[in-house]
Amino acid sequence: MTQHLDLRDGGTLDYHDAFYAADDADAFFARLRAETPWRQEQSRFGPFPRLTAWYADPGLTYSYSGVTHHGSAWTDTLARIRRDIETAAGTPFNSLLLNLYRDGHDSIGYHADDERELGVNPVIASISLGAVRQFNLKHKKSREKLTFDLAHGSLLLMGGTCQHHWIHGVPKTKTAVGERINLTFRNVGERPA
Question: Is the pTM of this model over 0.85?
């Protein structure tokens, strides 16, 4: 099922709950879990409650929360997924942030992907593999909240002014859940002076 939402203040959201068939999603999860050089990054507030990795075209860097990533070269698996996502989103992507949520204790707090090097109205494409986790969106002013259970093999596209007016996150859960890998594609440019 594909769902399109026009969000308050000009944002858009498209959710494809079965972008990848279960067999493909299973194979991608197994490969990425084994092949990715996962790291426990540290911010000024302590260790991130998840593991991360960053892949990008040559020469790109990406900074957020006090961490600067220097991209690894694209693997064959990631290059294939990248082509699929670029076709679906109708836009190119030059970088990918991966997050591994090991269990319900791992999370990411509310934030916007609004770093200056992402441009004015960035398109953010997110693939979910593995355990289903809750994804929350909250409008910065009205506090309106939307919640999605992101399925194994699903694709979520955030566009328009979404990153200006909405924040999003994956909360902790006390429910017993397995591992989840999230692939977040973005297009990184030069950081304006």
Answer: yes
10-residue averages of pLDDT along the chain (193 residues): 94 97 98 96 85 92 72 93 97 96 96 86 96 97 96 97 96 96 91 48
CB 138 within 8 A of CB 84: no
Would you state the structure tokens that stand for residue 131, as one six-digit string?
């355990």
What's the CATH number where 6 sits?
2.60.120.590
Task: Please indicate, yes or no, if residue 131 is contained in any of the structural domains.
Answer: yes
Positive or negative, the CA dihedral 157, 69, 132, 84 is positive
Alpha helices by DSSP H, listed for 21-75, are 22-35
Cβ(88)–Cβ(150) under 8 Å?
A: no
Q: Which two tokens stand for residue 96?
A: 């990918």
Q: What are phi and psi of 167, to 5 degrees?
A: -120, 155
